[in-house]
Amino acid sequence: MTITSAHSGKADSGEAAAELLQRLDGAAPKVVVFFAGVAHDGAVLGRALEQRFPDAAVIGCSTNGEFATNHFGKKGAVALAIGAGRIGAVASVMADVSGDIEASFRQAASSLSSKLGRSIRELEPNRYAAIALLEGARGREERINAALGDVAPFLPFIGGSAGDEITFTGTWVWANGRLERDGTALLIAEMKTPFHVLKACHFTSTDRSVTVTRSDETKRLILELDGQPAATFYAKAIGVEPEKLEFAHFLAHPLGLMVDGEPWLRSGVRREGEALFFACAVAEGSKLHFMRGENLVDDTRTRLAAVRAALAAPLAGGLFFNCAYRMLEAQISGTEAAYHSTLSESVVHAGMHSNGETYLGHINQTLTGLVFA
Amino acid sequence: MDQPRTLEELRELLKTSINNDVAFGFITARVLIRVGVNLKQIADEQNRNPEVIAKVTDALGRMDIKWEGTQ
Prior knowledge:
heterodimer; A: alpha+beta; 9 helices; 26 strands; B: mainly alpha; 0% strand
């Protein structure tokens, strides 16, 4: 019934695999999720885990940094093993995203449905945990998430975009014995114990909002805000000269959609002429709120306490997808150790710093996760 | 039945059809992210805009979400 996390700081994939297996000794998992630095050979890690745990579904992906209970770092590897007693039916699949993404996800949905014996469209979201590890370097997460929504609109996949040390040069994903550089790993598990979806974002909405009046979604560009050139409008709104806009300004002043009082962040990356390049596409007509940052560590602690209260039980394990922007913010503010201590004090876990997060869509500057009672 | 003439009308049909607040929330969040329309807080300028209504019904159609009047 246990959930076990493991980590290795080794840069050699064989050594990292051996260390993970040593730390997972005694585990009897039905699901294993692993994350590792992009320079690792994901196939070496994936195969080692599959060979040691032949009854488990094993998925994994590359990262911008990885963390686990009492550990955080880069270029290493971490894993979370979820005990067989917690899980009923389980299915995983690798979806090819190199061509027709919609067709590929229809095929993936068919495969998952067949393995689970039920259409994934009909699965109850409070009983089935769904995980997605997305190819994360080519800017197609919107299409991938839309395709997921098309095949399973009532089942929220939780996950993130694979990382590559924030270079956007190439990521890898592992599922079902295959390593793909242009794939998305999907896993659905029937949970026998309660779990909760975590979506934590330490920004709150200000009174100020703006409408996206022109955008180029395929390029993730916002061209106009309230009918004015986006860069000039945004710079003026945050009190900066347009030509002086830097990444730090975007990091500190994201915009966000508001849904039921909760922010869904849309994070700027850089100015491109009079346009703004974002880390996700923003549809024309979207009303975006200017956000105010709160304390990352305190907010995370509060969110995890809320999950504990919602589950009305001690937390047994967590699988986390933490935006690389949150990692950068923690590093810049000197709170990285405190941030990871908060996670470790709250729950046994493993996670990655992602190139974007998945929950009903592609989102930014958020911690998404599955937390198990 | 004809297509809804306003987003408010569409929202009510959808809500009745889905008949589950959590599931309705999933769908409205997906629609908002995909087409920029918040069905839970409809903007005045979007409510009667046929192009916007078409974008929403197209997104719902892709997800095979039905409501009264759809085939």
